[in-house]
């Protein structure tokens, strides 16, 4: 069995758990999420970005492309997404938002700064999949090994925060389980939507 295919299947399973929990505790939020990206959309984005998506990221986007509908996008902000999911203040990026933020973050030479290849602020092999509105902080998938890291502008970037996208989605599922049980300290489900305090 192809090892990369096996990893992608884990992502499918982990995201399916997240979607099942969201449907259970926040059905109104779940109902607004759009359908999948297409292979053609992903191939075009890869060509424009000049980097191949990691198989895990590709498998996830083929399940849900979380771009806002065009009528709901705000050109005055760096990133647009579905408010309040997965947490307050940040949201998952669809293909269009991902590509836009990647273009803003990527650098000629591939590493920023170029004299710190072991501890850079950014590498062009990192594809953002979660961000705040301004693109100042978020999470990315490293196309080289599928690990998930996080950045915050002006701070050292953390690589390998999660072993994989599946591992990260498992953490989101744990959060949603607490919300569903009514035991999460800052989030509850109100009228079918996630509400953060």
Summarize the structure in short.
The protein is an alpha+beta fold and 197 residues long. It has 6 helices and 10 strands.
Describe the model.
By secondary structure, this protein is of the alpha+beta class. The chain is built from 6 helices and 10 strands. The strands form 3 sheets. The chain has a 6-stranded antiparallel β-sheet. The chain has a two-stranded antiparallel sheet with strand order 3-4. A two-stranded antiparallel ribbon has the order 9-10. A hairpin with a 5-residue loop joins strand 6 and strand 7. Helix 1 packs parallel to helix 4 (55-61), helix 1 (3-25) runs parallel beside helix 6 and helix 3 runs parallel beside helix 5 (95-105). The chain starts with a helix and ends with a strand. The model is unreliable at 1-6 (pLDDT under 50).
Mean pLDDT: 89
User: What's the total count of β strands?
Assistant: 10
Net shape: globular
Question: What summary fits the major beta sheet?
Answer: 6 strands, antiparallel
Structural class assignment: alpha+beta
Rg over alpha carbons? 16 Å
Instruction: Specify the helix fraction band.
Output: 25-40%
Tell me the fraction of residues in β-strands, as a range. 15-25%
Strand and helix order? HHHHEEHEEEEEEHEE
């Amino acid at each position: 069995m192809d090892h990369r295919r096996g990893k992608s299947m884990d992502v499918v399973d982990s995201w399916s758990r997240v979607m099942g929990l969201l449907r259970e505790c926040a059905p109104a939020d779940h109902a607004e999420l759009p359908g999948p990206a297409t292979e053609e959309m992903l191939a075009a984005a890869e060509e424009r970005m000049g980097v191949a998506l990691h198989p895990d990221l590709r498998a996830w986007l083929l399940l849900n492309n979380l771009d806002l509908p065009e009528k709901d996008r705000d050109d005055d902000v760096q990133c647009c997404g579905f408010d309040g999911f997965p947490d307050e203040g940040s949201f998952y990026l669809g293909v269009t938002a991902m590509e836009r933020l990647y273009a803003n973050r990527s650098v000629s030479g591939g590493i920023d700064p170029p004299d710190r290849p072991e501890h850079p602020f950014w590498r062009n092999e990192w594809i953002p999949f979660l961000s705040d509105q301004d693109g100042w902080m978020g999470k990315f998938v490293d196309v080289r090994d599928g690990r998930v890291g996080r950045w915050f502008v002006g701070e050292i970037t953390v690589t390998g925060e999660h072993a994989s996208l599946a591992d990260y989605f498992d953490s989101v599922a744990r959060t949603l389980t607490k919300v569903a049980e009514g035991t999460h300290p800052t989030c509850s489900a109100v009228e079918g939507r996630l509400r953060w305090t």
